[in-house]
Amino acid sequence: ITDLTPQRLAQHHIRGIILDVDNTLTHHGSQEVTQEILDWLALMKHHGLKLTIASNNYDKRIRPFAKKLGLDYIAMS
Q1: Contact 72/52 with Cβ under 8 angstroms?
Q2: Rg value, the chain, Cα
Q3: Cα–Cα distance for residue pair 1/43, rounded to 1 Å
Q4: DSSP states of 34-69 as a string?
Q5: Please, which pLDDT band fits residue 29 given cuts at 50, 70 and 90?
Q6: Distance of CA 61 to the CA centre of its chain
Q7: What's the pTM value of the predicted model, to 2 decimals?
Q8: 3-state SS of 2-31?
Q9: CA-to-CA distance for 3 and 71, rounded, in angstroms?
């Protein structure tokens, strides 16, 4: 995911990204995020991109993860 740059997204008029958690932002089942991902998220936010997590995982897993990253989210109830 870190190969996506604000410039590349702007070229395609993309203003937001729907993100998955497991095996995208972190390893499956983990609550830890690498510094590379944290830096990428900060860069995207700095450039005004809207970031939202959408997951087929349960709210109790996704809520603390999204809160830690400061992202909106949609998860299973």
Answers
A1: yes
A2: 12
A3: 13
A4: -HHHHHHHHHHHHTT-EEEEEEEEEHHHHHHHHHHH
A5: confident
A6: 14
A7: 0.90
A8: CCCCHHHHHHCCCCEEEECCECCCECCCCC
A9: 20
